[in-house]
Structure formats: structure tokens, C-alpha cells
Specification:
The complex is a heterodimer. By secondary structure, chain A is α+β, with helices and mostly antiparallel strands. Chain A is built from two helices and eleven strands, in the order ββαββββαβββββ. Chain A is globular. The chains are: A alpha+beta, B mainly alpha.
Chain lengths: ~110, ~250
């Protein structure tokens, strides 16, 4: 997740990281990362949350932007088998949301022109 | 090629979604997508977001997702179906390829994939759904998903920052973060190929084939900003190890 401020709306943090902030911790599906100091209110201190969740936080000072990396819970890219949702544009810029295909099997193929 | 496969299986409840991991954006993908005429969703992922979410580390890779949104096979090499005819002719037809490109093609010819086995598994899943022997349990899906330690997560943050800087027009500043990502995730060829392919190509190459140069220009090796390049890295690891062996 790229941010240009270290204080961001709670909703943006949840959408950007895929972890929902609940009383029991930061949760994705059934998996929760316990939080010692859970955020209150509508905004989140990104650095404090990254520290609690063991998410890497990398700064590019020249452009005043930060990247919050993924969790490494369990040492694997996936924490559960539930497919993460993602919305991406097609060639013409029209957004498409992966979860709109529920009810069908999906083969999600990553490729590149290089 | 995935479009032809999709035509065959669409009536059986499978949809194909292709995602181009391409920081250079839609225009770099356009010739390929327009030639393929996809009827399925064909998406552009400039920040390699799906790679972070699903654990893609090289291309092509794929995941299988069932009707309920559960991953039943995590990211693994996904060669195009063996039964679908490859386009004939070569991108190199009609010109004398430079030496580096010939050497790249030589290494690429040693890369091993399992298109027939993979296609057989895929068709078995289409036909048999959750009863297919190729469907993995949730525990196995997580276990087989890519390793990600703290360094790997840090590497992904650097890559995301690099891709962001690239997309807002600061290529030179992106290079440092690509380098960090490569250092922290040395086996992630998607991150390497992406960064290498954004550098100028030599040999008077033009068009899509120029993206495969992925290394220093002849006589200008000192200006190459990365530790490795495609030819050097693939030779070091052995082309036969470029993709992990597919296992049922």
C-alpha cells in the first residue's frame, strides 16, 4: 500500500492492507494478528500499526511517499485459502473486480510482455 | 492461447482472468492483448498487486479459485495449454538477431515446463470440481504458497514503491527500490524481469522484442544499474531451474 501521509483514514488502511481492524486484532478471514494498542477513532497511525503488525514500512523521502509491505504471518504469501479480492483496470481503464466471478471457477493467470 | 482454451471450457463453468504484471502500463500490453482478442477479463496490474496478494514470483503463474472464492491451487507455473496451437512464425522473422538475443533464446530453450500435465490437471478440475484429485486442501494451499519472510515482505514494499515512482515518471528514483527488492527477494524473477525490461535495449531492437534484452548494452556494462541481468542470472541458476517443477 502506498501512502503520502502517515495518518490515514481507517477505511483506507483496511482497504489497502486487506486487514480489518477489529477489537480482537487485525483480521483477514479467520486469521487475526493481536494488537497491543488497537486504534480508536476514524484514523490510523500507519507507523504504529505497521510496527504492531510487523508490516515493513519503507519511506522515499525525496517524494514523501511510503510503502507498507505485506504481513509475513506464518512465513507464507497466503494466510488462508480465501481468495483476496482485487479490482484492476482492463486495457481501456474499465475496473473489474475479481469477486464478481463468484459462482464460477476462476483461473487467474499472471503474464507479462517482457 | 488462453482465449482458445477458454472457448472450450466456458460452458463448463470456468472463467479465465489474465493479469498483466506490467508497470509500464496498458500501452505496453496492448499489442499482445489486441492480438489475443480476449473475451475474458484481461487486466493490467501496474503495481504487481496480485503478485503480492497471491504470491506470483515469475510469469506465467496462475492460481485456481473455486465457485466459493476459495483458492484450491496457489501460485504455480502455468504454461499455456499444450493442446492449443502456438502461433507460427517468430517475432524474429526477417532480421538478424543480435548475439545477446540469440544467447537468451538458447537459454530459454532449456527452460522446463509441464504444459501437458498442467492442462490435464486443469481439465480434470473443470470436469470434476472439488472431487478433482488436483484440488488441494486449504492447509496445503497455504503451505504451498510462496515463502514470505520479513525480508521478502520488505522487498515487496520496496518493489511497490519502485512501481509507484515509475508510474509517476521518476524512473531514476525507482531504480534504487528495484535494487533493494532484488536484493531482498533474489529468487523473484518477476521483479527482476520487470526492472530489467524497463532499461534501454541494444542491438537496434524495436517493438515488443526489445523488452527481452534485459541486460547491459554492449560496451556500456558499467552503466547497467543492476547486480544481475537475465542472461547472467539464468545461467547462474541453471535454466532448467527457472520454474520450480510442477507437482500434482
Amino acid at each position: 500500500m502506498i501512502v503520502d501521509s502517515l495518518i490515514i483514514p481507517r477505511d483506507d488502511f483496511e482497504a489497502g492492507t486487506g486487514w480489518l481492524l477489529r477489537p480482537e486484532g487485525a483480521c483477514r478471514g479467520d486469521h487475526c494478528i493481536p494488537l497491543v494498542d488497537p486504534p480508536e477513532g476514524d484514523t490510523v497511525d500507519v507507523a504504529a500499526m505497521a510496527s504492531q503488525m510487523n508490516l515493513p514500512l519503507v519511506a522515499d523521502e525525496r517524494h514523501a511517499v511510503w510503502a507498507v509491505g505485506p504481513a509475513s504471518v506464518g512465513g507464507r504469501a497466503l494466510v488462508g485459502a480465501e481468495a483476496p479480492d482485487v479490482t484492476l483496470p482492463d486495457l481501456d481503464g474499465n475496473p473489474f473486480t475479481l469477486s464478481s466471478l463468484r459462482g464460477q471457477k476462476v483461473l487467474l493467470v499472471a503474464w507479462s510482455p517482457y | 492461447m488462453w482465449q482458445a482454451f477458454r472457448d472450450q471450457v466456458k460452458g463448463e463453468g470456468l472463467e479465465v482472468v489474465t493479469v498483466a504484471l506490467e508497470t509500464a502500463g496498458a500501452d505496453a500490453c496492448r499489442p499482445f492483448i489486441e492480438a489475443a482478442h480476449p473475451q475474458h477479463p484481461s487486466l493490467i496490474d501496474r503495481h504487481h498487486k496480485t503478485a503480492e496478494l497471491f504470491g506470483f514470483v515469475n510469469i506465467p503463474n496462475a492460481v485456481w479459485i473455486d465457485e466459493d472464492g476459495i483458492i484450491v491451487r496457489p501460485a504455480e507455473p502455468a504454461p499455456a495449454p499444450a493442446s492449443i496451437e502456438r502461433p507460427s512464425g517468430s517475432a524474429l522473422a526477417g532480421f538478424e538477431p543480435p548475439q545477446r538475443l540469440l544467447e537468451i533464446l538458447g537459454e530459454a530453450s532449456k527452460i522446463q515446463t509441464s504444459p501437458a500435465e498442467y492442462e490435464r490437471a486443469l481439465r480434470d478440475w473443470v470436469a470434476n470440481g472439488s472431487m478433482s484429485r488436483f484440488v488441494l486442501s486449504p492447509e496445503e494451499v497455504v503451505h504451498r504458497s510462496q515463502r514470505r519472510d520479513r525480508n521478502g515482505a520488505l522487498g515487496q514494499a520496496h518493489f511497490e514503491l519502485a512501481a509507484h515512482l515509475e508510474t509517476i515518471g521518476h524512473h531514476d528514483d525507482a531504480v534504487d527500490h528495484y535494487r533493494q527488492a532484488h536484493r531482498l527477494m533474489p529468487t523473484n524473477f518477476a521483479y527482476k524481469r520487470q526492472a530489467w525490461s524497463l532499461e534501454p535495449s541494444g542491438g537496434d531492437l524495436a517493438g515488443p522484442v526489445a523488452r527481452f534484452w534485459q541486460g547491459p548494452l554492449d560496451g556500456e556494462e558499467a552503466d547497467w544499474p543492476y547486480e544481475g541481468d537475465w542472461l547472467t542470472d539464468v545461467r547462474a541458476m541453471g535454466a532448467e531451474h527457472y520454474y520450480p517443477e510442477w507437482r500434482p
